[in-house]
Amino acid sequence: MVPKPSRERLINNMDFMGEPSKPLPSTQTPAGAPFPRLHLLWKLNKESELKLSVEIHANDDVLLVSCKGRVVYGGETAALAAKVAELLPRSRRLVLELSQVETIDGAGLGELMILFNLARAHNCTMKLVAPSPRVRGLLKLTNLDTVFEIHSTLDDAMLSSHSQVA
């Protein structure tokens, strides 16, 4: 008995969403706010299988990726990378919200660097938002905190992104 290739297993386990469905609750913008509402494009919620939940929200030029769980070697990093790489060419700004990431390993840090380089190749900026204390510690230990623009809140990152484009 030969197991299915890992990519085929991963694709079968991902829960793809169709058209944008609902605005992101944490970025409900009041009238006259500097950035528009973001809409849910895709959601991966296989907590029991992959130990990672990912929601991707977007508007015209911002791609917000909210991660919860573990960003570690295997299906977690592959799922995150595949979907972000697919959507990145349509965005000018990539924001990764990491406040609910419990742990990240070397493969996860490597994936962040791959996404950073991919974003730059598409003339897109990338920002990290509110990394958990454990993730922030690893970013500091590996000196990646000097590579990434890190913001403490989503609003700060969105406002920063907006002012850079304007």
Give the topology.
Blueprint: H1 6-13, E1 39-45, H2 47-50, E2 52-58, E3 62-71, H3 75-87, E4 93-104, H4 106-121, E5 125-129, H5 133-141, E6 149-151, H6 154-165
Helix pairs in contact: 3-4
The appropriate CATH architecture is 2-Layer Sandwich
Number of helices: 6
CATH topology: Transcription Regulator spoIIAA
Which class in CATH terms?
A: Alpha Beta
Intertermini distance: 57 Å
Mind telling me the C-alpha Rg?
A: 16 Å
Strand order of the largest sheet: 1-2-3-4-5-6
Order of helices and strands: HEHEEHEHEHEH
Main beta sheet, described? 6 strands, mixed
Whole-number count of domains: 1
State the low-pLDDT regions, or none.
6-35
What proportion strand? 25-35%
CATH homologous superfamily title: STAS domain
- The whole-number mean of residue pLDDT values reads 76
Brief overview:
With 166 residues, this protein is an alpha/beta fold.
